[in-house]
Write a structure and sequence with these properties.
single chain; 385 residues; Rossmann fold; Arc Repressor Mutant, subunit A; 3 domains; 5-stranded parallel sheet; globular; binds adenosine-5'-triphosphate; binds magnesium ion
Amino acid sequence: MTNIFENLEEKKTIFKDKKPLDHRFLPEHLPHRNEQITAIAKYWIEALNNNTPSDVTIYGKTGTGKTAAAKFAKEQLIEASANKNVSIRVEYIRCTDFTTEYQVIAHLCQQLGRDVPNRGWTKAEIIKAFRDIFKKNVFGRNLILIVILDEIDILLEKDGDGILYTLTRTDNVAILSISNFLDFKQYIKPRVASSLRDKEIVFPPYNAEQLADILRERSRLSFINGSIDDGVIPLCSAMAAKEEGDARYALDLLQTAGEIADEKGSDIILGAYVKEAKERIEYNKVTDVIMTLPTQQQRVLEALLKLTKSKEEITSGKLYETYEEVSKGDAVTYRRIFDFVNELEMLGIISTNTISRGHGKGRTNIINLQCDLDVLERALYPLGI
Ligand SMILES: Nc1ncnc2c1ncn2[C@@H]1O[C@H](COP(=O)(O)OP(=O)(O)OP(=O)(O)O)[C@@H](O)[C@H]1O
Ligand SMILES: [Mg+2]
């Protein structure tokens, strides 16, 4: 009999270090983002001359390096200011963590050494405490603060544009906003827009060759030399280029393909593992979404699954009928179901299509599943039917 410790012995792996594949890792170089980083630096250099830089807004789709570039520029500015007679602070704020103006201002105060409570003060009190920080100190040296507001859309949507109003009207403060949407300014009222004279920098999606350069750098740090087959990086890059040039997805593909190689006990990543990785990532994403849906929405999906399997054209009426069957007396109204249908469409699990049946016959909504049937079935019935 084998000793149980033998089985538990450390498994063989092709990873040297997984950290460089993590999304939070900040690499020393950001290939193909020189132009954008230099553009930020050209505004921020003002801080080194003791002037408040312009406000800047970065736009770009997911995984185009916005967060990485902003953090990179921050590190560079801090480094450059070290032996100059200036006092510069750059504070990075992820607006998913601080979702109100109060929270952001309180956090900034705390970072800058003011002891303020996380709640309880009025907004006017907290703003006053914040602005007091910028009164000239005894040496007459100004503090210049650059606030990076990452994923600003979330803050604006939840709490309005007050934060921009306050920051743009505080001396010595510059903002770098990061947004996924070109139209995020719809949340900003004219009175605020007029004081936010921001410069815009666009981050275009990466193409396949650029993604390959990014992956090559990261893979050198992460994988043991020679553990990646020749076609693998071009394949990951081509697949991620199709997903709107998303570098995060490219990194996920490579890491997951590496994990699959480890599981199979292979000392090299093959192209076939990348295809498997794609399915696994897709599977996990869809499964997570479906498994955490409320019961009634899961029933809508059960009904859709049933109809799809019997190859029926799924009209709204047909869907409701089948949903009622599935619900066995515990059904909600027709109207509610169509709110669910909209939500499921936004999640990308289904699509709807309005078709015209011809003259005088009106229009009908046709619903289609957009996810793999097997994936859906396993997510809805994890224990089997
Ligand atoms: N030019 C680059 N060189 C090296 N790594 C990069 C580059 N661009 C992006 N990455 C890496 O890809 C991942 C995603 O980048 P990042 O988080 O900056 O994207 P983002 O534009 O902020 O996306 P989102 O809008 O989803 O927040 C990170 O791991 C980042 O380090
Ligand atoms: Mg980001």
